[in-house]
Specification:
Number of helices of chain B: 10
Radius of gyration of chain B: 18 Å
Shape of chain B: globular
Structural class of chain A: alpha/beta
Helix content of chain B: 40-55%
Largest sheet of chain B: 5 strands, parallel
Order of helices and strands of chain B: HHHEHHEHEHHEHEH
Distance between the termini of chain B: 32 Å
Strand order of the largest sheet of chain B: 1-2-3-5-4
CATH class of the largest domain in chain A: Alpha Beta
CATH class of chain B: Alpha Beta
CATH architecture of chain B: 3-Layer(aba) Sandwich
Structural class of chain B: alpha/beta
Shape of chain A: globular
Number of strands of chain B: 5
CATH architecture of the largest domain in chain A: 3-Layer(aba) Sandwich
Largest sheet of chain A: 7 strands, mixed
Radius of gyration of chain A: 19 Å
Strand order of the largest sheet of chain A: 3-2-4-5-7-6-12
Number of domains of chain A: 2
CATH topology of the largest domain in chain A: Rossmann fold
Largest interface: A-B, 28 and 33 residues
Order of helices and strands of chain A: EHEHEHEHHEHEHEEEEHEEHEHEHH
Bound molecules: thiamine diphosphate
Strand content of chain B: 5-15%
Number of strands of chain A: 14
Oligomer: heterodimer
Strand content of chain A: 15-25%
Chain lengths: 322, 292
């Protein structure tokens, strides 16, 4: 039985470091790997990449639409472009380029949404990337990968190089504990079972995975057996894991650092809602539903009900044990 | 929504009269004192919050001071009056400079500046018009202010209310294509009530503009897009006032304000790392001295 344990005081890490290290390591043996950015060499952690491969870092300046178009052109020419920019500007500003030039054209561009979610805390909603799931999920042929820690971030980068295809990767900045082993792999389109359980399933993604595991541990102390699924891929969606969760555990809570209109919870609900009678289980969808007020990332995660305590409470509620 | 500070607004009103009535020399002295006070507020806000964009704040401070204290027709106690002159800070990351200029003009109490970026504060890292009087549109993603300014200028013309529209962009920000789309409509629509000020400090987030994605010849480019171009020292108060006078040709005006990023503090000036670095305690003391 799978049980991932994350201590409450476990050390935490910024995934951008693992992202950059893995990209550089791969670029040493694969000279088709290039990086594209928007005046974000530092914030995308590309300084070392630039120093080692000055010709392979294309900084187009503060011009995100051009940046994604240039990425598509590089892919068209035969390169493997990692297009890196703060999540909100990459996805929001260049959404039509992502739709037409990347997904619809099937150019193998790797879109790296840096510092996603509410990592930019006090810089406010303009700098939060919490609509990215809702904006990108409808685009056919675009993978959406949400690594929950450094090892999974490295795996996402390796997958993108081994099998280049239109992909969006969330590269987290808000520090999170490790929830997986070093050198872990990620299977395309599959959730990771982080903890087995039979009474309720918590499907969490990114920052919320460690919090879901803490919630599962505290539910266990109350005699509730919670399964935790780490939604590493939002597209393709692991419909089988969702159906199993509904049929086997009978209640589902989802948690994401994203807007609930069209995000992970909505994706899960659309699968659950179409199940046979008796399998359409109760759900709670945790996430954002308004523009964030001023505050740090940790403050805002609490504000939006995205702490382990909130997840625990939602599980109790969905089990009618509150 | 924050509300006006009547006594601060009254002080600002009399200061403005003094500025407009005085001769060039005394005007420059008064505006310099105002700008330095604004810079000191910015410094305190950023060191207290532990984050902010000090370099761009200091380069744009003199421009904001001249606009609010000597040029624009605004009423801090009636910030949404329809025929007001409009100001849009497109480089929204320099919110601290805007907040402190607005507070010093009475749009809201100066004491509110102490809440900059604190939990639930109205004063977010980027300006929010829903919460802060004097803010005309929410900026932060670069390349949004100028199109909104163009729409505002078209609207003022339709209403024939005489309002002028001022927008300040960063120079790195001019790499965004949306600005050039907006400039095309501005000149096509002959928006002689619009003034675009480019804070030409030659630095962006990670490097010099000319090393990243060069803008020069910026004057010729703006002229080719139909603007009446004026190039000015962005730290010379009287020259700025002159450059901000209405259009003389019927075309929209573009002011290239040559500035120094970090202006006013020796170790911050013209250094790329001070885009969003926060001064240490010791550096803060030195900065306060240099700004006094
Ligand atoms: C669309 C968008 N892309 C990227 C950023 C991140 N960013 C914030 S400030 C900045 C540099 C701005 O440079 P400039 O316009 O020259 O302003 P200044 O040097 O006066 O601060 C960047 C890239 C952003 N805010 N918006």
């Amino acid at each position: 039985m799978t049980t991932t344990t994350v201590l409450n005081d476990a050390p935490t890490f910024d995934n951008r470091q693992d992202f950059a290290d893995e990209l550089i390591a791969l670029a040493r043996t694969n000279d088709r790997i290039v990086a594209v950015c928007n005046d974000s060499v530092g914030s995308s952690n590309l300084t070392k990449f630039r120093d080692e491969f000055p010709d392979r870092l294309i900084n187009v300046g503060i011009a995100e639409q051009n940046m994604v178009g240039v990425g598509a052109g590089l892919a068209n020419a035969g390169l493997i472009p990692f297009v890196c920019a703060a999540g909100p500007f990459l996805t929001g500003r260049s959404l039509e380029q992502i739709k037409a030039d990347v997904a619809y054209s099937q150019h193998n561009v790797i879109l790296c949404g840096m510092s996603p979610g509410m990592a930019y805390g006090e810089l406010g909603p303009t700098h939060h990337s919490v609509e990215d799931f809702s904006w990108l999920r409808p685009l056919p042929g675009l993978d959406i990968v949400v690594p929950a820690d450094g090892a999974q971030t490295r795996a996402a980068v390796r997958n993108a190089v081994a099998d280049p295809r239109p992909t969006y990767i969330r590269v987290g900045r808000f520090k999170v504990p490790h929830v997986s082993e070093d050198n872990v792999g990620l299977e395309r389109g599959k959730f990771v079972v982080a903890r087995e359980g039979t009474d309720v399933t918590i499907i969490a993604t990114g920052t919320e995975v460690s919090r879901a595991l803490w919630a599962a541990a505290s539910l266990a102390s109350e005699g509730v057996s919670a399964r935790v699924l780490n939604a590493t891929y939002l597209s393709p969606l692991d419909e089988e894991a969702i159906k199993d969760a509904a049929r086997q555990t009978g209640a589902i809570v989802t948690a994401e650092e994203a807007n609930v209109a069209g995000g992970l919870g909505a994706a899960v609900a659309s699968v659950v809602g179409q199940l046979e009678d008796g399998a359409r289980v109760p759900m709670r969808i945790l996430g954002l539903n308004h523009f964030a007020p001023t505050g740090s990332t940790a403050f805002l995660l609490d504000h939006f009900g995205l702490t382990a305590d909130h997840i625990t409470a939602a599980a109790r509620e969905v089990l009618h044990r509150d | 929504m924050l509300t006006a500070d009547a006594s601060q607004a009254a002080t600002w009103r009399s200061l403005r009269q003094e500025v407009l009535a005085g001769d060039a020399d005394s005007r420059a002295v008064t505006l310099h004192e105002r700008a330095q006070a604004t810079r000191r507020s910015i410094l305190k806000m950023i060191t207290d919050a532990g984050q902010g964009h000090i370099g761009g704040d200091f380069s744009v401070t003199d421009i904001l001071t001249v606009l609010f204290d000597a040029v624009m027709n605004v009423d801090p106690e009636n910030p949404r009056q329809e025929d007001r002159d409009h100001f849009i800070l497109s480089k929204g990351h320099c919110a601290a400079a805007l907040y402190s200029t607005l507070a010093h003009s009475g749009f809201f109490p100066v004491s509110e500046l102490d809440t900059f970026m604190a939990p639930l504060s109205a004063l977010n890292g980027h300006p929010n018009r829903v919460k802060v009087p004097g803010v005309e549109t929410n900026t932060g993603p670069l390349g949004h202010g100028l199109p909104v300014a163009v729409g505002t200028a078209i609207g003022a013309k339709l209403l024939n209310n005489g309002a002028r529209v001022f927008v300040v962009t960063g120079d790195g920000e001019m790499q965004e294509g949306s600005n050039w789309e907006a400039l095309m409509s501005a000149s096509h629509q002959k928006l002689d009530n619009l003034t675009v000020v480019v804070d030409r400090n030659r630095l962006q987030q990670g490097a010099r503009t000319e090393e990243t994605n060069g803008l020069d010849p910026l004057d010729a480019r703006l002229a080719a897009f139909g603007m009446e171009v004026r190039v000015v020292d962005g730290h010379n108060y009287n020259d700025l006032i002159d450059a901000l006078r209405p259009s003389t040709t019927g075309s929209p005006v573009a002011v290239i304000a040559n500035t120094i990023k970090g202006k006013g503090v020796s170790f911050i000036e013209d250094r790329v790392e001070w885009h969003h670095k926060v001064p240490s305690q010791e550096q803060t003391l030195q900065a306060f001295q240099e700004l006094s």
